[in-house]
Design goal:
The protein is α/β, with parallel strands linked by helices and 377 residues long. It has 15 helices and 7 strands. The N and C termini lie far apart (75 Å).
Length: 377
């Protein structure tokens, strides 16, 4: 017997009487705490977001069905990011068609990327790098630092006919989110979409950030002396990373090994304090948007947009007073996006070693030391 086809299924025709948007979401607007738990943002922030991207979510009604209003599309998209629920689950709770929910999620993410990218992930300028460096010196006491870098896996459903490209070293399918973060856990540069199997320097070496830093075309300020230590000469502005990254004149990593001298231990500690900001940023991102704790069952290109949109919203919502709460929540869950391993590469140049030695000397000097560092190592 042939199944009946509907323009709108009878169950979904009752969305105004029984759907989540017209009841639960309306009630949540009267309870700020629960609204924040549900959408991971306040009513005011959600209204601001709607006013920004609402025109991109507007569609024309037809003779057969009324268009879903932008506010409901936004609610569905944000709930998808905040909960990690499946599209089918959201379709039932909001009494919408599965295709409508999928389209809403994609429309919301695409609108965020299109409209908000230039404001919340702008192209770097020299002034921006100087502001980032000032923030690192003020907050982590690491001078001439333009950001901390790291890469994280985002779990995805195995794409059809993809072979082992997305299959990573931990034996699941993923894409990589590679990011440079400032001292306040704000994403400054991101790259999304590298295959999960990429390693051995592939993610960093093939990133736009790696190429433009190598070619010195990223508007990084010229070398300057470290604070109060002109005798050490001019030192370049650098990024900081963990032991998986290569040592470059513009990229500092820890000293390897166990039997290190005291100044080298101090350097490693000071580098770790600065580098921790990128780990915290990933922790905040995953704690706020629980989609990162689930296997994302979308095409990889769609996943790219979801991840970029989540990073933009992270910057849009970032509040230093909330950071520690999200970091604690991430640690309590005990689950974060695993790091990308083995990104180190070629032997470091003599210039790179000299730059690291300059920082090492500075951190153990009267001008660069902090009173608590000796007890921390």
């Amino acid at each position: 017997m042939r199944r009946s086809r509907y323009w709108v299924h009878p169950i979904n025709q009752r969305r105004r009487e029984q759907g989540d948007f017209h009841h639960l979401v309306a009630e949540l607007r009267l309870d700020s705490q629960r609204h924040h738990q549900y959408f991971r943002m306040s009513v005011v922030q959600m209204e601001e977001l709607l006013s920004t991207i609402g025109p991109e979510l507007t569609r024309q009604s037809t003779n057969y069905r009324a268009a879903i209003e932008p506010k409901q599309r936004l609610a569905v998209g944000l709930r998808y990011l905040a909960s990690g629920d499946s599209l089918i689950s959201l379709a039932f709770s909001y009494r919408l068609g599965h295709t409508t929910v999928a389209n809403s999620v994609h429309m919301v993410c695409a609108a965020i990327v299109k409209v908000m990218m230039d404001q919340f992930l702008p192209r770097p300028t020299q002034q921006m790098w100087e502001e980032v460096a000032e923030g690192y010196w003020r907050k982590t006491q690491f001078p001439n630092c333009i950001g901390a870098i790291d890469g994280k896996h985002v779990t995805i459903q195995a794409p059809p006919l993809s072979g082992s490209q997305y299959f990573n070293y931990k034996k699941y399918f993923s894409i990589v989110l590679f990011a440079l973060v400032d001292a306040y856990c704000r994403f400054r540069v991101i790259q999304v979409g590298d295959f999960g199997r990429t390693s051995d320097g592939g993610v960093y070496a093939n990133s736009d950030l790696g190429r433009v830093m190598e070619s010195k075309t990223l508007h990084v300020p010229p070398s300057v002396s470290l604070p109060g230590a002109a005798q050490l000469g001019d030192v370049p502005f650098v990024m900081v990373g963990d032991a998986a990254f290569p040592l470059k004149p513009y990229l500092m990593r820890p000293y390897p090994g166990q039997n290190l001298t005291h100044p080298k231990k101090i350097y490693n500690y000071r580098l770790s304090r600065a580098r921790r900001t990128v780990e915290n940023a990933f922790g905040i991102l995953a704690a706020r948007w629980r989609i990162f704790h689930r296997k994302i069952n979308l095409h990889p290109k769609k996943v790219d947009n979801v991840v970029i949109a989540a990073c933009i919203l992270h910057n849009f919502l970032l509040n230093p007073t909330d950071n520690q709460r999200y970091i604690n929540e991430s640690e309590q869950q005990g689950r974060n996006m695993p790091a990308v391993p083995n990104m180190g590469g070629k032997r470091a140049s003599k210039e790179a070693h000299q730059v690291r030695e300059g920082f090492c000397t500075f951190f153990s000097s009267p001008e660069g030391s902090v009173y608590w560092q000796d007890r921390m190592v």
